[in-house]
Amino acid sequence: MTAAVEAKELTKHFHDGRVKALDRLDLTIEKGEVFGVIGPNGAGKTTFMSCLLGLLYPTSGSLLLNGQAPDSVDVHKSVGYLPERLEFVKWMSANELMTFHAQLLGINKTGMQAEIDKLLQLVELDADARKRKIKSYSRGMLQRIGMAQALLGQPSFLLLDEPSSGLDPVGVKLFRNILKSQKENGVTIVINSHQLDQLEKVCDRVAFIKGGKVQFIESMKTLTLKGATLVLRWSPEKESDFPKEKFESIVVSVGAILEELTFPTAKVKVESDAMSTTLIESLCRDGLAVSEAAPMEGRLESFFSQN
Q1: Which of the following CATH numbers is that of domain 226-306: 3.40.140.10, 3.30.70.980, 3.40.50.720, 3.10.310.10?
Q2: What is the pTM of this model?
Q3: What is the rounded distance in angstroms from the CA atom of residue 164 to the CA atom of residue 143?
């Protein structure tokens, strides 16, 4: 089976070879996979995305999407793209912008308006907003119309650059549900983002790029198995009667490790989400219900900071 994306020794130089944006980068992305790209500024992430879009040509090496070059007409028709910087024609309304992009894609006029209406409803852009000029849109509204245009024509690939930027929590959850639905439909999704907590929730695998090379590729399942540190908090007024020994016993009984206890906060090493749930349930059952429980840092954030 042909991989959705296959990069072999992908290299891109600028300034007569003095700058190596990509340096023999190798990776394979499977069809229907949600694949995240992370790394420090200047790592080569944007250059890689530009190569996927066929906007930049490699200096050497190869890059194929469904076995074809990124700049082929067939590939262009199958790619939906949401850029980080949304520079839409500001005098257009959402309906006009969507119609313009639908015409560029060659979508049949008979079903064009129905598809536009469906997508604008999907991103929850209300009827009033659809008629307004884009120049009046907030950042979050621009992200919504950007996602809608990226989904026109039922693309096989979605290339997303900081898709959650500017979205409120409701919008972030909406986008997660959209990506989940697209994955279920077999769409291959590549996300370039610094918002590691969001990537952790949607990606199957994540590549860490540095110096134009893939340093590591990790599956989110693997990172989940590596566990995390859970921070527990209680109401300060309970300090006088807090049963420290009982708490320590409960931690040991579920297989977790107490890293630190400085009331009203405790840090506990857990091996999985299931262990976290069991610990919290056990504390509640034994009269030690916490007021707050949260990871000290996301698993992906921890992975990023270590590399």
Answers
A1: 3.30.70.980
A2: 0.78
A3: 8
